[in-house]
Amino acid sequence: MPEPEVVAAPAGRPRSFRALYLAPLLALIALLAWAFASPIGAGPDDDFHLVSTWCATGSADRCLTGSESDSRIVPEAVLDAPCFAFDSTQSAACQTRQLDFDPTPTVETDRGNFVGAYPPVYYAVMSVFVGDDLLVSALIMRVVNVVLFVGLTTLLFWLLPITRRPTLVWGWLITTIPLGVFLIASNNPSGWALTGVGTAWIALLGYLETTGSRRLLLGAIGALAVLMAAGSRGDAALYTIGAIGVALVLTASSTRRFWIAAILPIALAGVALAFFLTARQVSSGVSGLGGGSTVPGAEAPVEQTLSGFGLIASNALNIPFLWSGAFGTWGLGWLDTTMPWVVVFAGIAVFTVIGFLGLARMTPRKAIVVAGVGVVLWVLPVYVLAASGKELLQGVQPRYILPLIVLFGGVLALTTASQRLGLGRGQSLVVIAALSGAHLVSLHMNIRRYVTGTDQPGLDLGAGAEWWWVGVPGPMVVWAIGSAAFTALVIILVREITPDRAERPAVTAS
After folding, report:
1. CB-CB contact of 489 with 30 (8 Å)
2. What does residue 108 show for φ and ψ, rounded to 5 degrees?
3. pTM of the full predicted structure?
C-alpha cells in the first residue's frame, strides 16, 4: 500500500485554539465517570484479578503464603468485594454492611494467578498502586488505566498521518459502547487487552508508513501497546500477533526499506508469542477462550445439551449473538447489569453504517485483512467451544473477543489518502445522537445497578441511594458530567474527521 500523503489543514481554518484540543480532557472526564460508576469488585472475575494484583506486590504485609502452593492469604475485602455479584437487584451496600476493609491479610483463597494462568505484567504494574486503603488503591488503578488509554490515543492522533486519524477515531467510537468503556475504566486485565490490541495495530501501521522521529515514536507506542496486551491475557497475546500481521499485510513491499522497518513488528510478534506460550491460558483451546476453567471456582452457567455436529452448528449459527455483547446484549460486570435495547440498537446501527461506508472504500489489501479478521472472529470462538465441548453461553464471553471486534472495526474504517468516510450533516447528527444516547443510557444503568439495585428504577440516581463513594460528588453529578463530556467529545471528533463538503468523495452514505 502506498504511503498516505500528509494532507495540510484545509485553507481558511483558524490556527488559533480549536475545540479538538479539548478532546483528551473530555475523554478523560467521560472515562473517569465510568471508573466511579461501579464499586471495586464490579468487573468480571474481579475477586480473582484483585487478589492477583495484591499478591503481585511481593510484600508480606499485603499477601501471605497459604497452606497450599496455589493458595494465598489476602485482605477480606479484596476477595469478597463482589458480594453483589449475579443479583442485579442487590446494591453494593453489602460491602459496607458485610466487609472489613482492613488491609491485613486474613482470608485464604486459591482464587488468584498463583499457577501462571495469566501473564504477570498487568498484575505487576497494578500492584505498584496497592496501599493501606483498599478502596483508594483500586480507584487509583482505574484512573491509571484511563490515563493510559487517553494518553496513548491522544499521542497516536497527533503522530499518525492525517489520513489515518479517522480510522483511529472511528475504530474506537463504533466498538466500545458500552462494554469497552466499562472495561477500560475497570480493574480487569481485559481493559489492557482492549487498549493494547486496538492501539498496537494502528501504531505499527503508522510506524511502517512514516519516517524519522515520528516513526520512532509510533514504534515505541506500538511496542508499549504490545506489551500491555500480551502481558495482560494469553488470548490477547494471540490477538496482538494478528494485529501485527494486519499492519504488515497493509504495508508489505519487496523493498529493503520495508524489511528493515519490519524487524520491530516481527520482533514484537515474537514477544507476544512468548507470552502466549508461557501463560497457562494457552490451554483455552480446550477449556474456553477466556481461560474460564483455569480460574479456580469458575463454573459453567448453563447445562450442556448438545454435542458433535449439533454443537458445532449451533455455535456457528449463534456467534453473532456473541459479537452483539459488545453493544449490550450481554450484561456488564458479572453479566448482571443489563442494558435496554435502545443501547444495543444504537451501537449496532452506527457500527453497521460506518462499516458499510468502509466496505465501499475497499482496496485489495484491505479486503484481505477485513476478510481475515472477520473469519477469525467467527471461526475462533466456534473452534474453542467445539474443542471444549461447550455451548455458546458456557465457555466464551464478549469481553474475550472484544479486542478482535475493535480491530475489525478499525480495518473496516481504514481508507487511503484519496478516500474519506463521508457523512452528510444530517447523517453526522444521527451518528452523534446514537453514540451519545447509547452512552448516556448505559452509564445511567450501570450506576443504578450498584447505587440501589435495578429493582428501584428512576431518573434520579441519588434518590434512596444505598451505596456510593465517600467524598465523591453524587451519582447524578457523575452521570451528568460524564454524559455531557462524552457527547461533547463525539461532536468534536465527528466534526473533525468528517470531510468538509468541498472535500467529500463521490461515494457517501445515503
Report:
1. yes
2. -90, 140
3. 0.90
